[in-house]
Amino acid sequence: MDPILTIALLAVTGITAGTASGLFGVGGGFLMTPVQYWLSLAGGMDNTLATRLAFGTSLAVMIPTMISGAMAHHSRGAVDWRAAFPMGCAAIFGGLAGGTLAAHLPGIVLRTFFALLIMVMAVRMVWHIQSCEVCAPAGSLRIYIIVGFFIGIISGIAGIGGGVLLVPVLVILLGYPMHKAVGTASACLIFSSAGAVMAYIINGWGVAGLPAYSIGYVDLVTFAILAATTIPLARFGVRCAHGCSGRNLQIIFAGVQILIGVLMLVEM
User: How far apart are CA 141 and CA 118, in angstroms?
Assistant: First the structure.
């Protein structure tokens, strides 16, 4: 594929993913992963290798993106650090476990898991519309650690930051208002993405067929293009999120999830 077209597609993807990160408290992997996968296939890369590279690179981009988004949410008082910190620490270990497992699974298994996961959670988000803006969240240290570890595993296996699952968990199970759930998820995903990225770097080290400028399953060129657009747009997404009702955020989020999930399944 033409390099200029590739850069343009990645830049547009980064703009969209960065905005989504700020809006929904997700890493943007549900957008970055399939685009990178399709571009790698177009370049002649092996199916499974393309999947792992897309997952690892997306997770790497999420780290600075979520830092940008989390700081913007924090400035608006929308981050519950008492929950985000223990969940994030537990998610590091879960991410290492999930990323290691993913590095040994066939690409079709990873893509199927990814697609079905986000579509199921989309249905759950629409089924449970949270309209309360001042609810008192429930939770304990033990629950936060369990949730964080589980989210970390999902991040590693599915190549996403975990917000696609964490936000619904915070809203549906722990009673968080949507905006607070988005901000808290943003902070937690900094840690979960870092754990998963380490696993992808370690397990991809020295693997044949990867792009020239790669560290394990992280393509540094693609990382630079995506991060340059996602980081500033994450803060823009936060401003949009706080100007939108929680109900509308959930409905839009669910629609995007279903669309991407269907596209991933069709590509198989």
Answer: 27
